[in-house]
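hiii so my PI (J.) wants the whole complex modelled not just the main chain, which honestly fair. so below is everything: two entries, each one labled with what it is. i double checked the lines twice but i was tired so who knows lol
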Amino acid sequence: MFSSYRLPWNKFKPHAWIPVRLAHITRLSDLFQPLSIAPTNQDNSGKTDDAVSRSQKLLLETGMVSPGSAPGTFNLHPLFMRSVEKLTKLIDDELRTIRCQKISLPSLQDASMWKSTNRWSLMGSEMLKFQDRLERHCCLGPTSEEAVTSLVATHMHNASYKKFPLRLYQIGPKFRDEMKPKYGLLRAREFIMKDLYTFDTSEENAKISYDAVVSAYENLFARLQVPFVKAEASSGAMGGTKSHEFLLPCESLGEDTLRVCTKCGATFNAEIKANQGAACSACSSTTELDTVKAIEVAHSFLLGTQYSRKLGANFVGQDGKSNSLVMGCFGIGVTRLIAACIEVISSGDRIRWPLAISPYGICVITPKAGSKEASAGGLLAMQAAVKLDQLPQGNGEVVVDDRDDLTIGRRLKDAQKSGYPMIVVVGKTALDEVPKIEMHYQEGDQDRSMILSLDELLDLFRAEEPALDSTNNDPNSVRL
Amino acid sequence: MFSSYRLPWNKFKPHAWIPVRLAHITRLSDLFQPLSIAPTNQDNSGKTDDAVSRSQKLLLETGMVSPGSAPGTFNLHPLFMRSVEKLTKLIDDELRTIRCQKISLPSLQDASMWKSTNRWSLMGSEMLKFQDRLERHCCLGPTSEEAVTSLVATHMHNASYKKFPLRLYQIGPKFRDEMKPKYGLLRAREFIMKDLYTFDTSEENAKISYDAVVSAYENLFARLQVPFVKAEASSGAMGGTKSHEFLLPCESLGEDTLRVCTKCGATFNAEIKANQGAACSACSSTTELDTVKAIEVAHSFLLGTQYSRKLGANFVGQDGKSNSLVMGCFGIGVTRLIAACIEVISSGDRIRWPLAISPYGICVITPKAGSKEASAGGLLAMQAAVKLDQLPQGNGEVVVDDRDDLTIGRRLKDAQKSGYPMIVVVGKTALDEVPKIEMHYQEGDQDRSMILSLDELLDLFRAEEPALDSTNNDPNSVRL
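here's the output for the full assembly
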């Protein structure tokens, strides 16, 4: 009866995708990765400065990013883009889990709504302001409290309390005309930010949203496997009643100073702790507070009703009365977080990526052109690359360094500097009776290697769980 | 020997993702989709205008987008974002197939490079220009020929001819201060664009890149299953030697006029055909040329060396000599293309999406609250949603309309207006001895429906191929 009906999508035949996949294994000879960008810190005056951060130096020298035409802006190159896309997916996954919905608000914003919250003048020259062709005052959004609150005020005007919580977020470019852009992506004037806004019907419900987001942040940092600190912070210019910062401890470069209670571990931004005396406000201990330097990568604010009141974002409660929505706002500096991870977990001369956002998991190095093993080893290397890519554990995670006019040693060094977690080298041992492959990786600060047949290498991978789940973490294909 | 070694990613255990997936089926009661936005055309003066396009009306009325604070800007809501993300993946896939590499260039650009190509004055007030806090002249990139050519000139200065072709693209916001923003996303001031730039070592090689991109575009339109036209066009302000436009024919709204040879089918933009007389320049026929109106959604330009010469993007050839790289540039208006598809394939009162970029493939409507079938039918509906979502053919493609204070008839109408290709309704027939489900879909302009048991429904889906490939087209998980 229904067998004659074809679902509409059957009419579409995807063009053969399996051969395409294999052809898709990236080769470094094709890759845009200029390996010799001299790192200089470009401050806002356009002058250069010696104070270059470790992440900036490594990301520039490995050709992952380069300075844009305007100070404090960066071109993101293909490898770095993969990391951005992987992190985006991790964030999407964590936020969808707590029922956040993805939207996109324009960067080009009208002055009027910023004036109604008084932030047009409060943000001052940190905001990029200008006039359009009809001389209307506009700005580039440094953040979107005004835009999202206006959106909800206009299109959910006096909606029923049943429609809340509402949790809206976006991931995209943000603009801040920093007085001193520095340390590369750690303080840029244009950067990628995730900004989330929650709308609830009471302070109590807003706290539930707040806690849900904080716990999603904790999951995210756990998945990145970076040491992070959550600190009670001041709400500052954002206003509101409760605020936390998420930071990566970093003695050399941390711009935030934290106070950590040696007894209960509670952590506070020094800004607020200075006001509260020496005793820990969590456990009331009067033992000394440790001081830690750290880089802020995310924050959370319980905003209350300050924006919803000014912009008229109301709901109708069970009692039939109209009230202001209670808001929270939550940011993650996406490009900043990647740079901060590199800053704190890398050694001075090579990048270490959090595994979940490493551009590729495995780099396969082919034999040098003209070497005895070039022919047999070249085939073996491609076979290894394709077979690793076909395993769920390596799928989409393989890149081949086929720059075979360079020695293996030079390419191994490049691969280590670029931070590939696993490096598979096909060299002289390709000519063994049972052809062998070298595998290099880091364990802690130690370089390790082992020599294996291709089957042994594949078995080793098969014994592991897939990178992130049952498929993989290729930004173009991952199921999170 | 190596079994004691654990790959580093094994240390990371993803938190249980299977329950999360099931919990992730979106419910319309949660979804931000304001269904009653009055469509008005907002021109650049801020005044409203009656000329509203069909896509604009439908996208506003179905709560897919809403106007931003500045004229000609739009908030993209969750359903529309899914469409954008699906289209992004299709584009990524087609471009990766021809070895394009994804990058991201800043929107914030310095005036100097625009001055060196003279486009600072050529683009005039269509470019959003301003000064930063140090009074340096900047703009928001309307396109990125200058930025990408500078990037290549700086970091691949006199690179070997072996490093080419180089094909770099990005997908992100672009800004044009249109005199008359109109028709919603068809002519906005901030919009999402894919821009691709190719670098080759000769005019001949540049043509190979050009043809590869044109064929990727053709694949893309074939996957969208929309009727498109490729027309020879004038290079205009962009300069260069060869140019094509990709357009969707649209009598009511097409701003481009095409001339089509009735004999050989060759198509030309009327701009260039006017200069070439009445004969077809492809087949030399002097029969009449048809006139067709159409909406431009993509373009391609063979630029030659005009940008590379001015900005010093050179390579070193086999002969050891330095020469200017030969460039092509290729745009797709991502948000514009979605709007244009809706414009041309929808009927006046309901959206029709290209299947490959429909926000969700299947909408499941639950029984009305308080109806006799509410209890048994509610369970059946959730069971249907979960089981459809578990099939590769429906995975990630299911949304549940659980707004059960509304009648089924009202929700069916909403679902049809929002354009879900398949609508599954659980109503009175849920109480049949073998509980039954209605399935509604469109075939051509006809509304069709059938009544099935859950098993029959699932078998029907199982008999089909997965939406786009062996996994699915959920923007958050698809393997393309």
